[in-house]
């Protein structure tokens, strides 16, 4: 199933991935290494470790342990990848973790080898999140295509090796369709966001997904509204507000760089001219930056990866 979902993602984004040229000179060793690491840790090792743990523990316990991904992402981004995290960002990450734990609080909690396996999966996804935020030699669609093809092929091969496939054609088609929407579109949007916000801040937003799932269950499925769910949602909204109102600015230097990512021309960093693009329209293409020293409020995006 994991393999089909990833292959569905690859199929969905393929037309967009080939809209831009795959320029060899843009694929620097750093970009290739980040993409390879994101595919290995996020698309191959992470899912295998999580499913291995899920086979040895109740689903409720695994749901609780998966909140370690937020903590792993934040700690790795601060300690290893030199992403600036202020007090508000740390508090927002903590609130999201607490809210997720409240939503996933199990009635039957288990520990042992399964917990270690899921924790290792979260560590892999923390590495994936940080490496993904640094990919700048591929468009988000190109990175998603590579990840979907490799992860899909490896997971299907593992599944076929461990157990004979029993999926019907309709089930396979359904999995590919869900993968195209929930994996393909989701990963493309996540990569684009992580390039602009950094790994931790994008993961804070992404980690509010359980509450939006609960909200859908209220509105579309008519499920009852629980007090615990409302509390968790309020904590997540406070976390998003704290992150949104965070301010960070100081004098900093930029080295010359050539890369590919979504950008607009009213952000103080992209001053090249497109007669057919208004300044506020976000678009993606390869472009160059000259060395610059200036001061302005900023996020730990692709242009601001310095510690402070």
The N- to C-terminal Cα distance equals 43 Å
Strand order of the largest sheet: 1-4
Strand content: 5-15%
Helix content: 55-70%
Main sheet specs: 2 strands, antiparallel
Helix-strand makeup class: mainly alpha
Shape: globular
Radius of gyration, in Å, reads: 20 Å
Tell me the number of strands.
Answer: 4
Total domains: 2
Give helix and strand order, one letter per element, not per position: HHHHHHHHHHHEEEE
Uncertain stretches of 5 or more adjacent residues: none
Average pLDDT over all residues: 79
Number of helices: 11
Walk me through what this model shows.
The chain has 308 residues and is mainly alpha-helical. The protein has two domains: 2-250, no CATH class; 252-297, no CATH class. Helices cover 61% and strands 8% of the residues. It is built from eleven helices and four strands; from the N terminus they run αααααααααααββββ. The strands form two sheets. The protein has a two-stranded antiparallel sheet. Strands 2-3 form a two-stranded antiparallel sheet. The model has no long low-confidence stretch (mean pLDDT 79).
